[in-house]
Amino acid sequence: MAEPGLLRARRAFDSMLASLDVAPEDHELAVSQPIFALATIMARDGGQGAIATALGLDLPQGPCRCTAERMTIIGTGPAVWLAMEEGGDPLWALRLADRLSGCASVADQSSGYAVLRLRGVAARALLQRGAFIDLDPDMFGPGRSAVTMIAHMGIILWRGDAASVFEIAMFRSHARSFWDWMAATAAAMGVRPLRDR
């Protein structure tokens, strides 16, 4: 059974999303909350090669994202990554820690972060109004990520495979504040966020 904190993280945006109408496929700003199991991986001395071998992927070196099977890894700092699995269960981080025993420290972040997915032609323009990084596709294309701030809130931001998809991880306690910023910014742009199917 999931721990209460994980359940709260998974419901961070539920009531807010429930208040939105469903977006058509081509809507300019569609919003959803993907469900991720999350963990921070910190390499021990000389452990990067062993981590890559254990996970069966080349670890991102710098602010980018890679995916193998159902796992996604995002570089968030020197020898530090955010690992995630969409739809992962409450024991996912423990199994990851077992796989990486001896070469990395693994900390479950599933209950600490809420994740929001923005899709549509207005997604980049909306995020650009808050982020202090260049989100132009030539600079921040698919696979890119950043640890940055929006409206004084620390976030991890990454591009999806599609040009118009962005995902944002934030501390769960910031979910309401981030939503309020997003809604106000969208309104100022003349955009109405709708719920992704």
Q: Any chance you could write out the topology, listing elements then pairs?
A:
Elements: H1 4-10, H2 14-18, E1 30-32, E2 36-43, H3 48-55, E3 65-68, E4 71-77, E5 80-86, H4 92-99, E6 104-108, E7 113-119, H5 123-128, E8 145-150, E9 153-159, E10 165-171, H6 175-189, E11 194-195
Parallel strand pairs: 1-11
Antiparallel strand pairs: 1-7, 2-5, 2-6, 3-4, 4-5, 7-10, 8-9, 9-10
Report on the structure:
- This protein has 197 residues and is of the alpha+beta class.
- The model has no long low-confidence stretch (mean pLDDT 90).
- Strand 9 (153-159) and strand 10 form a beta hairpin.
- The protein is globular and about 50 Å long.
- 25% of the residues lie in helices and 32% in strands.
